[in-house]
User: What shape does this take?
Amino acid sequence: MGSVDFMPLLAMVMVQVGYAGMNITSKLAMDSGMNPFVLVTYRQIFATLATIPFALILERKTRPKITAPILLQIFMCSLTGAFMNPVFYFVGLNNSTPTIACALGNILPAVTFLFALIFRQESLGIKSKAGQAKVIGTLVCVGGAMLLSFYHGPEIGIGSSAIHWKYAEKMTDEHPTKKGNFFLGPFLLFASSAAWALWFIIQAKLSTKFPAPYTTTTLMCLMASVECAAVSAAVEHRVAAWSLRSGIRLISAVYAGFVCSAVAFCVMTWCVQRKGPLYTSVFSPLLLVITAILSWALLREKLFVGTLVGSVLIIAGLYSVLWGKDKEVKQANIAEKMEAAAKNREKEDLELQFQAHGNGGDGQHDHN
Assistant: This one.
């Protein structure tokens, strides 16, 4: 039994390691001069190529009919989740650090909860413990994000890494100005989480009408490729800027597309089916820890008090929201079971009354 439960655990840890690697390689690619819009365009192109086989093979017989309203919803998903989200994220990462980017990514459940309230997919339930946990967690997440964005404080002296990656050191030395705009970076990273949260709202409605996740992802990435290419061409006119001759640029684009879009999506889909959505959500803070260690070890990133305290607050708020949501789901399941049991009892009572009535009629007939 232990070995069965161990596989989802290992899978989700590897997903977080994969995303941490994307933050490092993408930061290095942009420090080398790669335009964030170009990087996002290549990512979506490679993601489309990677997900096409899954859509064609796994959903060939089960795929529902693709109608105009479905295409419109997929387009909205591509606009929010595959265009705005990664564009804001990579531009924010380019003006920030991988650690801050991962820390602000943990406000996603809180932002999603806010949008779900606005679109009436969630209830506030402030009188219940679950509702209070979600509200308090959301406020703590936002507070941690603001602290992390606007206050850095003194540097935490943890020493220097003994690992010396010459290429990373060269990029760090040649592009010291890429350390970040500490207002623009966090603001865009917050906007990225907001766009991602909107994607969850739209995707929740789409998945009920069109239960074909691989086809949806392929079409979404394909549409996003066109959207990103159009905007990137307007922003970056130089042909040389689109070159992938540089090793780190090619690795970053292919890695982000194949590993972090195709493979990660398949693995997380499998884990959601095995363990549920909450199980996959609780691993997101692990990404922050892994990225902070890799950034310190490979990119010589410095850690500040504000970054540490803000990250702790965001993680605390995240688990508060997740705890509230989990408790709410359990209460809903109990209510459903009680309602089903009540209906069964009512059905049994009606059957007994019917039998009693039938036996009574038979007795009178025999007496006559």
Observations:
- The chain has one domain: 2-321.
- Residues 2-321 form one domain.
- The two ends are 66 Å apart (CA to CA).
- The chain has a mean pLDDT of 79.
